TrEMBL record:
Catalytic activity: ATP + protein L-histidine = ADP + protein N-phospho-L-histidine
Skewed-composition ranges (Low complexity): 384-402
The name this protein goes by in its record: Sensor-like histidine kinase SenX3
Principal localisation: membrane
Enzyme Commission number: 2.7.13.3
Length: 412
């Protein structure tokens, strides 16, 4: 559902609930007008609220607050306390309090969107809410508050995603257009044509990679359970990931070594798992200095819901700052955009890894220290043991004492 439609639907539901509560309060308000005000005592909630209103408020997803004529809180939902709207028996948000007083005075329904500070987090993040105030009888005022923070975040992610896709597609397409013009102008210079054609191939490959990653992401981002899953050998996935990065690693004299427990299997889609592990290994190689080591190790770990297979990819690269670690799995988020473009990264690789892990019932985590390197760990459910008749042909053991790619120098 579109974010704007979701917000509009939430506002409509809030309005409908306000109307229902107002109708429940209609007859009650007639006899309430003759009652004397007793500000010196706090009557029971069920005696103060109109019949049925307390039941309606208890099932609302919105944060609900009912104020009396003295601005004291007669009823407040647990969500209202969680958002910090009510403190010490009073409504703690001044703009909402002013709205309630104005509505009590003229009987008009009011609605406003506010950004409230998060209390106690120390991070200064704003809490986006939509507040709706309506009269409830002649003495009470009803406040319904919807938390829009997540909807705002999703909308911001959507805008950033569209902007980033547009930019990433525009760059290689623009370069190919310019290079094609250069080729036409240099038609009588074979050397120039060859040089421009080589650049066109690079930009075309970049464009193809981006489009393919967008396709891969669209297939896995819903985190839907797998329909066609099978046991997949981990050592086969590791061998494919290493082979995918062999050329880049050789050019940088980076040693890639595989190790850990042999003959492990995970349950899932072979293509998606190969893409996820390949992205982790490719990142490790791209962000590692020359003449360093990238290690891939797998092991079985015991978990309450069943054994898991951990595949760890460790590098000796530049590391990830602490402030960026929570965001590196977001689509198009890059710690160093300039370096990412230099290495050909699109910012989608880790997002694909996260969604593949989720769709397989697993997770991915990261440990990193600036200047020392990073370790990305992919945890996936282990596939059930197979009988000899159904087991696939044996593959090379994962534990390999020799580096897959030899290097002139290996750091300790």
């Amino acid at each position: 559902m579109d974010v704007n439609a979701a917000v509009a639907a939430a506002a409509a539901i809030a309005g409908l609930c306000t109307g229902v509560i107002a109708m429940l309060a209609f007859r009650w308000s007639e006899r309430d007008q003759a009652r004397p005000t007793r500000s010196s005592m706090r009557p029971d909630i069920n005696a103060v609220l109109p019949p049925g209103v307390d039941t309606v408020l208890s099932v609302l997803r919105s944060s609900a607050v009912v104020l009396d004529e003295g601005d004291a809180v007669v009823k407040a939902s647990s969500a209202a306390y969680a958002l910090g709207l009510v403190r010490g028996g009073k409504l703690s948000v001044e703009p909402m309090l002013h709205m309630a007083r104005d509505t009590r005075r003229d009987g008009e329904i009011r609605q406003v969107e506010l950004d409230l500070p998060r209390r106690g987090t120390g991070r200064g993040e704003a809490l986006a809410v939509s507040a709706r105030v309506a009269p409830l009888g002649s003495r009470l005022v009803l406040l319904l508050v919807e938390d829009l923070t997540e909807a705002r975040r999703i909308e911001a992610v959507r805008r950033d995603f569209v902007a980033n896709v547009s930019h990433e597609l525009k760059t290689p397409v623009g370069a190919i257009s310019l290079l094609s013009e250069a080729v036409m102008d240099a038609s009588d210079d074979p050397e120039a044509v060859s040089r421009f054609a080589g650049r066109m191939q690079i930009e075309a490959a970049r464009l193809i990679s981006l489009v393919q990653e967008l396709i891969d992401l669209s297939r896995v981002q819903n985190d839907d359970p797998l329909e066609d899953a099978e046991p997949v050998r981990v050592d086969t996935l590791v061998a494919e990931a290493i082979d995918r990065c062999r050329h880049t690693a050789t050019s940088k004299q980076i040693t890639m070594a595989a190790g850990g427990t042999a003959d492990l299997r995970v349950w899932g889609n072979r293509g998606q798992l190969a893409a996820a592990l390949g992205n982790l290994v490719e990142n490790a190689v791209n962000y590692s200095p020359a003449r360093t080591r990238v290690g891939i190790a797998a092991r079985r770990v015991t978990a309450p819901g069943g054994d898991l297979i951990e595949i760890a990819v460790t590098d000796q690269g530049i590391g990830i700052p602490e402030k960026d670690r929570e965001r590196i799995f977001e689509r198009f988020y890059r710690v160093d955009p300039a370096r990412s473009r230099a290495t050909g990264g699109t910012g989608l690789g880790l997002a694909i890894v996260k969604h593949v892990a989720a769709s397989h019932g697993g997770e991915v985590s990261v440990w990193s220290s600036e200047g020392q390197g990073s370790t990305f760990t992919l945890r996936l459910p282990e596939a059930a043991a197979q009988t000899p008749a159904t087991a696939p042909a044996p593959a090379r053991p994962l534990l390999d004492p020799e580096p897959v790619i030899p290097a002139p120098e290996v750091l300790p």
